[in-house]
Specification:
- About 60% of the residues lie in helices and about 0% in strands.
- By secondary structure, the chain is mainly alpha-helical.
- Strand 1 and strand 2 form a beta hairpin.
Length: about 290
């Protein structure tokens, strides 16, 4: 296995020519090296070189075979990638997990363009991703000097592309919505790095499949009030309210841009009113700190 400096030098050379490959470049050897270093704390290597190269080869150059993509998928779903040191908080292991998750959309996009994965494999992605989201405890966005961790944002991107797969049924979509609700309804952190917007994107993907009745989507929206109203402790209650409020407000305006807001405006409005600490106060200021 080549070291970090060697893989960085190799990818920098390829980057000079927009990651175009020569006859001497063997992806069957190069990709495993890249996956080994995908958790580097060097943001330039991790994001601008390793991820960007794989994304370019998949989305622009069609350079990675379906069999190679299947191998990538099975590797990143394993214990040494998205479940690597799972449960740790504030450690560098998050970079390996998070950037492995970020590769899932690339595989799914390639599959939707020209299907090569079985339904069993797609369902495995769903199950592993939802399991990962239940077990991931490092919710940081940007980490000083090391760049993006963004485990939740990357997972949201994966949920978005997963929801668009034809193999995903209404049962699976319900599981995806339940996962989104659980992620948003946390009081561990207030999301400040665009996580809510990216989870809205995944939600829109679910709605656009038109497999779930609008009444069911409305009931899902209303269900966000339950965790808030059942959380009395502070500041946990305030933090959870902030996450849910930001998500529902983002959802409303994104639906409006998609010309779908009228279908869900009432449940969003009513849920926001129920969780608000200021509903009904008019112009009066709260006396609480």
């Amino acid at each position: 296995m080549i070291n970090e400096s060697q893989i960085k030098e190799k990818l920098q050379e390829l980057a000079k020519n927009e990651f175009r490959l020569s006859e001497n470049d063997d992806l069957s050897k190069l990709i495993p090296e890249m996956l080994y270093h995908i958790g580097s704390t060097d943001n330039y290597l991790r994001d601008d070189l390793i991820y960007s190269a794989i994304a370019t080869w998949v989305l622009d150059h069609n350079a990675i075979s379906h069999e190679q993509l299947r191998e990538i998928l099975q590797k990143i779903l394993g214990d040494q990638h998205i479940f690597y040191s799972i449960g740790e908080r504030d450690t560098d292991s998050v970079f390996r997990r998070s950037f492995s998750v970020l590769l899932l959309p690339l595989v799914l996009i390639a599959h939707r363009s020209q299907p090569f994965l079985s339904k069993t494999e797609i369902i495995q992605v769903k199950e592993k991703l939802i399991q990962y989201l239940k077990e991931e405890k490092d919710l940081r966005g940007f980490v000083s000097e090391k760049g993006w961790a963004h485990a939740i944002a990357h997972s949201a991107d994966s949920l978005d592309d997963l929801a668009q797969c034809a193999e995903i049924t209404e049962i699976d979509l319900r599981e995806i919505l339940a996962a989104i609700r659980a992620i948003i309804s946390t009081y561990e952190v207030v999301y400040t790095h665009g996580e809510d917007e990216r989870l809205v994107t995944a939600t829109i993907a679910v709605i656009k499949r038109s497999l779930l009745p609008e009444l069911e989507i409305a009931q899902w929206i209303r269900s966000f009030e339950t965790p808030v109203l059942n959380t009395d402790s502070m500041p946990q209650g305030i933090m959870m309210r902030a996450n849910i409020k930001n998500f529902l407000q983002s959802l409303y305006f994104r639906l409006d841009w998609e010309q779908m807001a009228d279908r869900f405006a009432i449940p969003i409005n009513q849920t926001l009113q129920k969780i608000s600490l200021f509903a009904g106060q008019g112009g009066e200021q709260s006396a609480h700190s």
